[in-house]
Design goal:
This protein has helices at 10-21, 39-51, 65-71, 89-109, 115-122, 133-144, 165-176, 196-199, 212-221, 229-235, 240-249, 251-266, 270-282, 285-306, 316-349, 354-370, and strands at 28-32, 78-81, 153-158, 182-188, 203-206. By secondary structure, the protein is of the alpha/beta class. The model has no long low-confidence stretch (mean pLDDT 89). The chain binds zinc ion.
Amino acid sequence: MQFSDIPGLDELKKQLISAHKRGKVAHAQLFAGRQGTAVLPMALGYVSYIMCENKQDEDSCGTCPNCVRIKKLIHPDIHLHFPKISASESKYEKVLSEALPRFREFVVETPFGDLETWTRKYGQENKNLLISREDSRQMLKNVSMRSVEGGYKILLIWVPELMNPSSANAILKILEEPPEKTLYLLVSYNYDNLLATITSRTQLVNVPPNSMEEVKKYLEEKGLEPANGEQTAKLSEGKIGLATQIAEIGESHEYEDFQKWMLECWNKNLTGLVRRSEDFSKSGKANQKTTLNFAISLVRNAVIHASGQKPPVQSEAESAFIGKYSDKLGLERLEKVYALVNEAMIHLERNSNPRITHLNLSLDIIQVLNG
Ligand SMILES: [Zn+2]
């Protein structure tokens, strides 16, 4: 990751470079911003710049041995710490050796990815991930070791708010008195949840969201031009990670469509619903099933959310959407809608008339929503 891989945010990049040129590199820095924005990419661009053997005016060179190894996250003096499943001391090495290659892949493939993306990549959706007591022991070990190549040694701690309090306390001392040429970069999405004793020992680097134009341009450059680029950029609120997810799964249209459908039911818009059932019937068997399956999975997750559990959502977009629906409709109505959509699916699979099935479903949902 280089600065040039991150669209915009030129002011911040310049500040980081200029601090380095003036020899004013704070030994502990807290990169903070919202999930899906350029917080982690910015920290990594900074790492590359600091370690680059052939620094350019506005960026690292991207081709020297250090840059190349940092791109793959395999530089021996860059130590990565990130949330993972907890392990006892004896199992720690094993857990780490399994998690680290996946974490590298996650960052290389989806540098703007959020915690959920990591949890999925890691294959631990049902576990609580954290930075454990064992991780903090590992950090202390990293700090006490000499730098392998004689230059800077960097500890990058991703999502430090998931450190358990005892590991957070354990690293206070090293934050306070770092050995020479040791840098701590904390990459946080919610630094209010960090211990004040930690934040007070770090210099805050605020990473703002990207502009809508920058998000749009980024998607275009990655060949991810969603049907409605403008809309995707807007929905993403400047979070490139979120925009990429929406563009890749093409969900924005499905969400929008589902939302419109529910609104038509809510408002008892019969003209709209009749037209919708006709469109549904013309869309072909495969699309009909996809539409209902999408509704089933969304409503199921909303039911789970409404009953106070954590649904296995696929993206931040979905999570926001589900939160909104479960609050608005409440558990009881959601359960009824869920049963109705499932029933419609069964009818459809038994070759019922799709137009009538869909219209009946809408009419039943009207009853539930207005009941
Ligand atoms: Zn370089």
